Amino acid sequence: MSEYNTNGPVEVAVAPPISRDAQEKLRQNDFNVTVVAQDVEQLFSASPSIFRQTKKITDAFLELREVENFLDELVVKHPDQARVKQIGKTENGTPIHMMIIKSQISPAASLAGANNVSPVVFLDSGTHAREWLSVSTSLYAIQQLLEQPSSPARQVEWRIVPVVNPDGYAYSWNTNRLWRKNRKSGIGRCQGVDLNRNYDVNFEGIGSSRRPCSDIFRGPAAFSEPETRAVRDAFLEVRSEVKGYISLHSYSQVIMLPWSYQPDVHPNLKNMTDLGEGMAKAISKARGTKFDVFNTYKSFYPASGTSMDWVASLGVPHSLAIELQDKGHHGFLYPENKIRDAVTEVWKGIEFFAEEIARQSRQENFTQQ
Ligand SMILES: [Zn+2]
């Protein structure tokens, strides 16, 4: 979610004494005005609870250190299934970690394929610091994968980076809850690069900014940031095996498909749309929550240098980004008492995605024989 949007909704927060005047002025200028929250301060206080006894990932957001502990504990519990790999370091020296989870293909299924290499699904979250729900969603996915080894999602190998932007994430916990970018310094009076404008695909193009103070500042060069380089290198290491990519963001409840930088139709768009709609259906089965499936450029907003487009440009058949719950009432300040519903329903979509990737890969292997 970014502020760059010429024809779509824009959210503005104003102080109570001028709220009525501001609404009046906007209406006079032909804006459709809806009040999504009467009291933003109250939403802030409902967001993370400082006093808590237990920290289950479905009941609370996790600080960076807690995320690391969570991953380490799972590896200790499932040493033959999972490992954590450091894929890079931020400018401040903070490690960036990736969880690798082996596939559980039955011998019969793997014999049916042309080779024994499992398809890989790459998933990342926490690219934008304030999008805490994205981190909870990927942690829940990791937990499900390891604790439900019979899940159809275990037919693929997983590479999951839960916090792409650890410095930004920590900053959103300790200083500015609504911080988006990384914490790059030395670029003038403002800090931070929007990591999701820093990938090498149409870099410098539409929907990105050259101004360091902008929330969509793309950085001085493609892959100028250690965080995007870490994701790039981890990805390229298994490039030929990666058949699916999901980047988790919040919020809007949409499944976004390439391209985001240009109106041209992606060669695999039909197949991607079918898969996206299958995911949306799987999500809605849980509690009726509706996710739309969009071509990003046409229906959402144009953006250049995004990870989704970069992965799609490498020929990976399925590359998408999910803007998680909700549609704006809580927005980035998603309440902790709703995490469980949110992560469990989206898990159903992720599971469907992996199952379908496995099926399509088997088919591809079969036709190549
Ligand atoms: Zn985002």
What does it look like?
This protein is α/β, with parallel strands linked by helices and 369 residues long. The chain has two domains: 11-46, no CATH class; 52-368, Aminopeptidase, CATH 3.40.630. The protein has eleven helices and eight strands. The protein has helices spanning 16-28, 40-46, 64-77, 107-112, 132-147, 166-174, 226-237, 269-287, 296-300, 307-313, 339-368; strands at 82-89, 95-101, 120-124, 157-161, 242-250, 254-257, 292-295, 318-324. Strands 1-2-4-3-5-8-6-7 form an eight-stranded mixed sheet, sandwiched between helices. Strand 6, helix 8 and strand 7 form a beta-alpha-beta unit. The longest helix is centred in the C-terminal third of the chain and has 30 residues, at 339-368. The chain is globular, with a radius of gyration of 20 Å. The relative contact order is 0.16. The model is unreliable at 49-54 (pLDDT under 50). Bound molecules: zinc ion. Zinc ion (ZN) binds at residues 1, 127-128, 131, 249. Keywords: Carboxypeptidase, Hydrolase, Metal-binding, Metalloprotease, Protease, Signal, Zinc. Residues 60-357 form the Peptidase M14 domain.
Kindly state the percentage of residues in helix.
25-40%
- What is the CATH C level class of the largest domain, in words? Alpha Beta
Bound molecules: zinc ion
Note the gap between the termini: 43 Å
Which residues form runs of ≥5 with pLDDT under 50? 49-54
Briefly note the structural class of the backbone.
Answer: alpha/beta
Radius of gyration based on Cα positions: 20 Å
Got a strand count?
8
- The average pLDDT is 91
Measured by DSSP, the beta-strand proportion falls in 5-15%
Domain count: the total is 2
Number of helical stretches of at least 4 residues: 11
CATH fold-level label of the largest domain? Aminopeptidase
Strand order of the largest sheet: 1-2-4-3-5-8-6-7
How do the SSEs run, as a string of H and E?
HHHEEHEHEHHEEHEHHEH
Write the CATH architecture name of the largest domain.
3-Layer(aba) Sandwich
Pfam families: Peptidase_M14 (PF00246)
Protein name: Carboxypeptidase B-like
Family: Belongs to the peptidase M14 family.
Active site: 323
